[in-house]
């Protein structure tokens, strides 16, 4: 038996339990589809509205933020049309939050499967991405319709900005989700840490306020401002502003310095996010060896 094992491995077979990370996800599309269906079915079981919550939750979020920031702080006057500006950022933050939050808990929530059978563990956080996309598409449609009402007409640069911003969020959130999800199996405090990160994420990116105000407060050349603008989530939000809000703003706002270089910084942010995804995959693959014992 032992003599046959080296020959089998030489023929291209791999030892059980040894995976190739995220590459294995691409080879298990059917299992991934089943996990997505299970997640959606469990989430909306005995729910009257079902997937309609994809519209209700961001809608309530938008109304509250618009009422507070748009009316009390009068941002609706200084950032026209503020509704498009605000909802562009909300769509990005919601996508990021859902992927990272669900990916962090994915292995724990599928502990029964981990203990019973072997399958690529990366399927669990990867399924979180697809579930989040199911909720993201309706919000994106609402954003496109709303922007179209006020005169938005997409061109090649607008489409490129939206795709680039989406790619940054997907790779960044999945990379972090792989890292936090793997560590969370051994240390459940990670869930609370991620919840704190998601709670403040909306305030540490230009969703509710213009980027120019941050420059005024901290200084355009300050270290804090450099770190703030280097945040891939900040760049992703501004790419969505570039795609949906900028084409319908006043000419004065169209000359913003951020508009001139946001696409370049977006490419750099995507590169960083891809590197983080590779690192996250390596960390997850290494720690996944002990998942069955720790669950």
Automatic annotation (TrEMBL):
Domain (ABC transmembrane type-2) ranges: 49-287
Top-level taxon in the UniProt lineage: Bacteria
GO biological process, one term: lipopolysaccharide transport
Residues annotated as transmembrane: 48-70, 82-103, 123-147, 159-181, 193-211, 262-284
GO MF term list: ABC-type transporter activity
Record membrane topology: Multi-pass membrane protein
Pfam families linked: ABC2_membrane (PF01061)
Annotated compartments: Cell inner membrane; Cell membrane
Keyword Electron transport: no
Cell membrane found in the keyword field: yes
UniProt KW keywords: Cell inner membrane, Cell membrane, Membrane, Transmembrane, Transmembrane helix, Transport
Principal subcellular localization: membrane
Gene Ontology CC entries for this record: plasma membrane
Family designation: Belongs to the ABC-2 integral membrane protein family.
Protein name: Transport permease protein
Source organism: Litorihabitans aurantiacus
């Amino acid at each position: 038996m032992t003599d046959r094992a080296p020959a089998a491995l030489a023929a291209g077979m791999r030892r059980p339990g040894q995976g190739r990370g995220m590459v294995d996800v691409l080879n298990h599309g059917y299992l991934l589809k089943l996990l997505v269906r299970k997640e959606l079915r469990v989430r909306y079981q005995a729910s009257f509205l079902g997937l309609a919550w994809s519209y209700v939750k961001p809608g309530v979020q938008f109304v509250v933020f618009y009422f507070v920031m748009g009316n009390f702080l009068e941002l609706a006057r200084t950032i026209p049309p503020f509704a498009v500006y605000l909802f562009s950022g909300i769509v990005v933050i919601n996508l990021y939050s859902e992927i990272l939050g669900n990916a962090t808990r994915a292995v724990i929530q599928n502990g029964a499967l981990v203990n019973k059978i072997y399958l690529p563990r990366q399927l669990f956080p990867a399924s979180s991405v697809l579930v989040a996309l199911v909720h993201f598409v309706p919000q994106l449609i609402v954003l496109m319709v709303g922007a179209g009402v006020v005169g938005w007409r997409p061109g090649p640069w607008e489409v490129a900005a939206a795709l680039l911003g989406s790619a940054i969020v997907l790779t960044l959130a999945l990379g972090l989700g792989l890292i936090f999800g793997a560590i969370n199996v051994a240390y459940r405090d990670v869930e609370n840490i991620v919840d704190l990160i998601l709670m403040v994420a909306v305030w540490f990116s230009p969703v509710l306020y213009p980027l120019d105000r941050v420059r005024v407060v901290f200084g355009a050349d300050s270290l804090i401002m450099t770190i703030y603008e280097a945040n891939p989530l900040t760049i992703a939000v501004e790419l969505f502003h570039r795609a949906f809000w900028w084409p319908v703003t006043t000419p004065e706002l169209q000359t913003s310095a951020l508009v001139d270089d946001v696409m370049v910084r977006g490419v750099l942010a995507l590169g960083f996010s891809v590197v983080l995804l590779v690192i996250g995959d390596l960390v997850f693959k290494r720690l996944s060896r002990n998942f069955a014992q720790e669950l």
